[in-house]
Amino acid sequence: MHIGKGIVAVLLLIAAQPLLAQVDTSRLDTSVVNVINPFQPIIAESEKLSYPPKEIVTAPEKTELSYYVPVKLFRVNYPPVSIKPLAVSKERPLSYPGAYLKLGFGTQVSPLAELLYTGRKLKGEEEKMNYGLFFRHFSGRGFKLDNQDFSDNNAALFASFYPGKTLKIDSRIDFERDARFYYGYNHADTTYDRDDVKQNYTDINFNIGLSNSRPTKMDIDHETRFNAYYFFDRFDQSDLGFNVFTKLKKTFNSVHEVQLHLEDDYSVFQNRTVSQSNNIFLFKPGYRYMGGAWEVSGAIGIALDDKTFYPLPDIKAQWGIIQDKVIVYGGWNFELRNLTYKQLTDRNPWIKDNTFLLRNTRFEDRFAGLKGTISKVSYDFQFAHKVMRQMPLFINDTIDPSKFLIVYNAGTLRFFDIHGQLEYRALSNLAFTLTGDYNIYNPEFEAEAWHLSPFLVNLNVRYNIVQKIFLTMDVFGIGGAKARLANGTATTLNSTVDINLGATYKFSKYFSFFAELNNLAHIKYEPYLYYPTYGFNGRLGIILTYQP
User: What does DSSP assign to residue 429?
Assistant: First the structure.
């Protein structure tokens, strides 16, 4: 159970190996969002076993500000089932030094305030440090249903340092405090004070990493990262843990690549009746071949929890039949995941307190697909068969239906996922993206895959008029999930179509206006039984930006 205590020193020793590597070209920060760099390290964003890092948008280059950052539909193994309480775009500057302030107000009494400040220190032409802070408040109050309210508050400090010619140290501290209300009761004959149905979630997160900041003559990439978090709610439930990993990759002749991934993930979950600790250690060596039209990779991971070893093969291959125009690919991989309380509440914030434990989830993914780019069209079509063991599902409590119990599918949850994505850049300033997922669930011991949506379709349109007017449109189609009633029978929640429009007018270099219209169809979709979303909502505001 305490295997992680002896691992940290080993990870740090291994991470120190590449410090002897020598520099090859000029420094570029590699943690870039939507900025193309000549160097892209072969170590990807960490595939953590546990706690996902927060998103802080920064970039190291002097880049023209963009007032629209499209929300990406990332593939997730827990299929998305809900729309946020109120849709809101996340427009932030992508370069520093600079400052950004966004203020807005809308229907459902929904104030919005965002502040981002970034700076840097230079030694001659060489960057030695960049830093910043971020703050965000967003809240809303429903008119039709009492206590259909929410509040999100985020604050962060972040910095990156370059102590040597090849090293980068980045750090971040995040604080998040959100409020949700159990409003899924019968409002016709029941009333509650706000304080009686209120739930607060507080998350404190610290993250620090060490990596190479540019390519080396030895073609070695390395990354070591430590993340600690403390997550707790209003009813004496908490999750305390840390994650530490080291990744090493060495390339030979630009064709062969050897990899090593070591990771330890430790957490302690507590409520009023139990205290539960969990530890997962991962050892994963691998190899990748990158020759011509072929790319093949294979790794054999060994994961150890408190008492059991799990073999975790990870095999992927792709073949460029016609260069980058037609690429066929496939793979097979296993993962063991440390489920956290934070992950559960991100999926469903209306969980009944002090009624559950956390269990590790085993995940298997077999997939094959076709992707490529032909002229102005990019595409990706994939068929996958996924197997999840100890998958958490949500059912309404029979005593208090406004709260949810967690049931773990004791056997396996198998599902087929058909995924498609098309992007068409009609013009340099006009782009269309269509993404869809269709899932067929087959739980072994549960009657249905409770509250998992069978399909999600999204059409995103982005139009930029002479760098002055930025227009966006999002159309979502979401399939109704199955929910379990108090008598044990299943009901199907209604499907929905959600249409969102956005516009930003850049009045000057420093000043812009924005407007958002969401859920134009005014459909009060239920992502969870008895929890309808808001109908139509809109917002107006201003954006102030500054760059020296």
Answer: T
